[in-house]
Each structure stands twice: as structure tokens, then as C-alpha cells.
Amino acid sequence: MEIFEIYSYHFTLINLIDLVLLIGVIYQLYRMLKGSLAFNMMAGLLTIYFAWLLVRFFKMPLMETVLGEFTKVGFLAILIVFQQEIRKFLLLIGRGRLARENQSIFRFLPWNWKVEKNFNTNYEDIADTCEILASTHTGALLIFPKTSEMKFIGASGEVLDAHISKKLLLSIFNKTSPLHDGAVIIANSKIKAANAVLPISDNPEYQSKYGLRHLSAIGITEQTDAVALIVSEERGTMAYAIGGKVTENISRQDILDFLTKEFSTDLLSAR
After folding, report:
1. Which carries the bigger pLDDT value, residue 36 or residue 104?
2. Which run of H or of E encompasses 239?
3. Looking at residue 64, what is its pLDDT?
4. Alpha helix (H) ranges present in the chain?
């Protein structure tokens, strides 16, 4: 049954449903990938794809062939590079997590686990915790995502969804705790996960200079827009990482200033 016509193209009810579903899938992919390395790769691939459509329209066979091959290889590269994330996503579906998540039936989807624009995070407790851990030479790694809570990465450790407190953070990073080795992910005023496993930077400039904790902080900030706080177990010093770069030997006030700069709307409501 025809509903309407645009430039001699006849829209039926099935066509309309098909279009709405496609827009929905594209939007959800955008929300899932935004702020990650995958988003930049996907944007580059789509640019090549639209260029391929353009040269195909103007009947340029050589460019059409070259760009067409790039598009095929690009999709294959995404499947290879992000096979771990794809596998975890499929496991969420296969394990029946859908029924156990309350409220919305779509709550398990990674694009629905996002960072809200404004939340009241107690950065004073976080800064105090880092200072105490540094004084006792206790290693720690805290990750603050900006646009995605990184549910796939959080699922590699222990999902907590707990309110932030100095005592809880000190307990997690206690050397006798089974959760102290991995990273803590903090978003929406809560500790979303502990003992999370992060990607390690393969930058040769850093591999000979830093240990696993710092390389993990560099790796996650290289691949996403998250920022990280690191407490060195060996040196008893604090550092932060952003965009794959580390600033070392910082103070408690430096941590507060850093978080103020990166999450100013959050900290204003916390003071």
C-alpha cells in the first residue's frame, strides 16, 4: 500500500518501517561508538563509502574499483580489531542477561549505559584516596569516561554500581583485596566496575618507560575519550593520563584542578 511519493519514489508502509529501523540502528551505533577509537574508524570508513557512491554516480570505473576495495577491507578490519567487543556483546545476548536487567528490556545494550551530562561526583574523596594510597605505596588506577561508561570493559572485571566513598575505594585498592589489580571505572557519581582489564598501549616510547598500570592508563586514553588517574606502587607518586599522554608527580590539588577542567559542570555542583 503506497503512502506517499518523493521524486517518483513510491513509499509503502514496509519501506517506511525499513527506513525507521535503519535510522534507529545507525543512531544506536553512533551512541555506542561515540568517544571511542571505533567511532573514528567508522567515520573514516563512511567517508570512503560516500566517496565510492559519488564516483559510481559519475561513472569513474578506476576510482570506483579502488574505493570499493577499501570499503570491503575497512569493514573486515573493524571486525578484526574489535572482535573482543563484538564477542562480549553477543555473550550478553546469549546468556539471557536481558531478562535479569530490570526496568527497560533494552537496558543491557551498551549504548544505553552512557554518561549523563551532569552528575554530583565527590572528587574530594577521590583526591584524598589517591593521596593516601600514594603515601602507602599502594598502586591504583581510576578511569573516568566522558561519553560512554565502557560497559564492555567493565564487564571484564566486577560490576559494582556503588556510590563513591573514600573507604570503599581504599578497600578496593587494598593490596590484600582480590580487586586491587585492575582499574576502577567511575561514572554517573558511581563506581561502575572494579578490577577491569584495560587495553595496553603498544607505543614503543612508553613500553620501556612505564609499568603495566601506566600502560593501561595510556592505552585506554589513546582509544577512548576517558581520562585516568594513576598511583604508582613503586614510586608512591600520582599521575593523570589524557589523550595517551601522562603527567607525573602531581599533587592532590592538581587532581582537583584536572577534574575541574575535564568535568567542570560536575565539580561545580559537588562544591
Report:
1. 36
2. strand 238-242
3. 86
4. 13-33, 37-57, 61-81, 83-94, 97-100, 123-135, 151-154, 166-172, 204-207, 212-223, 252-262, 264-270
Instruction: Report the CATH number of the 123-270 domain.
Output: 3.40.1700.10
pLDDT tens-digit profile of 206-242? 888 899 999 999 999 988 889 999 999 999 999 999 9
Report CA 40 to chain centroid distance, whole Å. Answer: 13
Instruction: Give domain limits for the chain.
Output: 2-112, 123-270
CA atoms within 13 A on the CB side of 124: 5
61-78 as b/e, with b when 16 or more CB fall inside 10 Å? Answer: eeebeebeeebeebeeeb
Each residue of 1-46: pLDDT tens digit?
556 555 456 667 887 888 888 888 777 767 666 655 566 677 777 8
SS (H, E, C) 124-171: HHHHHHHHHHHHCCCCEEEEECCCCCCHHHHCCCEEEEEECCHHHHHH
The closest alpha carbon to 19, from 31, 33, 6, 34, belongs to 6
Q: How is 88-109 classified by DSSP, letter by letter?
A: HHHHHHHTTHHHHS-S-TTTTS
3-state DSSP call for residue 183? Answer: strand
Contact present, 266 and 121 (Cβ < 8 Å): yes
Residue for grid cell 566522558: 146
Distances in Å between the Cα of 83 and the Cα atoms of 59, 75, 78, 79, 245 are 35, 12, 8, 5, 26
Per DSSP, the three-state class of 64 is: helix
> What is the CB neighbour count within 10 angstroms for residue 249?
10
Q: Which residues contact 270 (CB under 8 A, 6 or more apart)?
A: 120, 121, 122, 123, 124
